[in-house]
Specification:
Elements (H helix, E strand, L loop, with lengths): L1 E5 L9 E7 L6 E2 L4 E6 L4 E5 L4 E6 L6 E3 L3 E6 L13 E3 L25 H10 L5 H10 L17 H10 L7 H9 L1 E4 L4 E4 L4 H16 L2 E9 L1 H18 L6 H14 L5 E4 L4 E4 L5 E3 L1 E2 L4 E2 L2 E2 L7 H16 L13 E5 L18 E5 L3 E7 L2 E15 L5 H16 L1 H6 L1
Parallel strand pairs: 1-9, 15-19, 19-20
Antiparallel strand pairs: 1-8, 2-4, 2-7, 3-6, 4-5, 6-8, 10-11, 12-22, 13-14, 15-18, 16-17, 20-22, 21-22
Helix pairs in contact: 2-3, 7-8, 7-9
Length: 427
């Protein structure tokens, strides 16, 4: 039978994607669960596995093309070899196919017994199913290694990360995304009366960022409060503990985990900062949980993965989780659920060398904190000019929910905790 595979709904709010890569071509045999294609959405890159085995009959989308949820992108013939086909092949449409495939009840196909079969035949079939873990599959994709060509050394022929690493060391690989090549091919150059103009198509992520920024600025009336905090004690404390974290735990600890902790404590003291505005019902929704979005600068644009339940985690746990989500955000290896549900966001433009900025609220949140570059500056202390480490802070608020006084008090609380970092360890 010919089965049609539709681009599935892979997460709330995602309606389309750009086809980055086909893992198969017409005429290829594919096993159930093996990857069919990779799709770029506005939030993540998703690998689409096949929900059944068979031969690829048609590829109905091209690399670089925008495909919509529900559109048929591939047809697979799951008939066993030698079976006689009717003059009209039945087309079975997968209405419930998801990103992890669909469960289907059928009386037509029963797995064959392994009894009496040669071990070599069984091993060969197992290799065809490409047994591996999601982490190893992602590693192979990033290195440009076709896992179907590898011999796994793990249990049951499972492909391990060591197998992929060994293959990568043997063969030099040039990794380039086909979608980027396609966008480069579609880049147009024109000549105006003023000079040369280059037109570059937007990526899915860039389109989404544009939509969200317009929504935020035209929905929430922004106001911004700016200040500087003294972080001399924090700099000294971090310098004392960073080597221990790196050697014992393998974590590069930055200032951000301390800032996250200070923000969470300030949110508890001023609950309206941890809220959103229900425009339809004219209500302020106070959130009694603390999920912080952390803006990460990637090649495609800002991504805001979420660290959940910050109030229940230590500085060490925050450092580890922050390093993990930042790395995976740059690899575009986050799951959709890791990018939603934040109650307050932080953006660190100090990492790019900037001091002050005016951050745009991650709507529908009520506020966002911008962190600038930490620098040593001359300040007056007890009528004496001394050098102290200072951090610029910029807080943008939704003026429907919060006022300038709320913003000033919020920054003062954060400054207080950053000036006494030892308290952040204890609280």
């Amino acid at each position: 039978m010919i089965r049609e595979f539709k681009f599935p709904d892979i997460g709330e709010g995602i309606h389309e994607g750009i086809l980055l890569k086909w893992y198969v071509k017409k005429g290829d045999k594919i096993a159930s669960g093996a990857p069919l294609a990779e799709v770029e959405t506005d939030k993540v890159n998703a690998e689409l596995p096949s929900p059944y085995s068979g031969e690829v009959v048609d590829l109905l989308a091209t690399v670089g093309e925008t495909i919509h949820v529900g559109a048929v992108i591939v047809r697979i013939d799951d008939l066993e070899k030698g079976e006689i086909e009717d003059s009209k092949q039945e087309v079975i449409e997968e209405e419930n196919a998801g990103v992890v495939g669909a469960l289907e009840a059928s009386s037509e196909v029963i797995p064959s017994s392994l009894e009496g079969r040669k071990p070599t035949d069984i091993a060969k079939e197992a290799r065809g199913k490409v047994l591996t873990t999601p982490v190893a599959r992602k590693m192979a994709h990033d290195l440009g290694i076709d896992i179907r060509t590898l011999q796994g050394t793990g249990p049951g022929g499972r492909i391990m990360k060591a197998d992929i690493k060994h293959a990568h060391e043997k063969v030099p690989v040039k990794v380039e995304r086909e979608a980027k090549e396609d966008r480069a091919q579609r880049t147009e150059s024109t000549q105006s009366t003023e000079g040369h103009i280059e037109r570059i198509p937007l990526s899915m992520m860039r389109k989404t960022i544009a939509k969200k920024m317009v929504q935020s600025k035209f929905t929430a009336p922004h106001a911004t409060v700016m200040d500087e905090g003294d972080v001399t004690a924090l700099v000294e404390f971090r310098n004392k503990v960073k080597e221990g974290f790196k050697v014992e735990e393998g974590i590069h600890i930055t200032y951000m985990p301390f800032i996250i902790k200070a923000v969470m404590l300030a949110l508890k003291e001023i609950p309206k900062m941890n809220s959103s505005y229900d425009e339809e019902n004219q209500e302020i929704l106070l959130k009694r949980f603390y999920h912080l979005g952390i803006a990460v600068d990637t090649e495609e644009g800002l991504m805001v993965p979420v660290i959940r339940d910050v109030d229940k985690k230590s500085i060490f746990q925050l450092a580890r989780e922050l390093e993990d989500i930042s790395t995976r955000a740059r690899m575009k290896d986050l799951q959709v659920e890791e990018l939603r549900g934040s109650t307050f966001s932080i953006t660190n433009y100090g990492a790019a060398g900037s001091s002050f900025g005016v951050p745009v609220i991650n709507y529908p949140e009520a506020a966002i904190l911008g962190i600038g570059k930490i620098e040593k500056k001359p300040v007056v202390r007890e009528d004496k000019l001394v050098l102290r480490y200072r951090v610029p802070l910029s807080l943008s608020i939704d003026h429907r929910v919060l006022d300038g006084g709320d913003g000033a008090r919020f920054l003062n609380i954060i400054k207080k905790y950053l000036e006494e970092p030892y308290k952040l360890i204890l609280l």
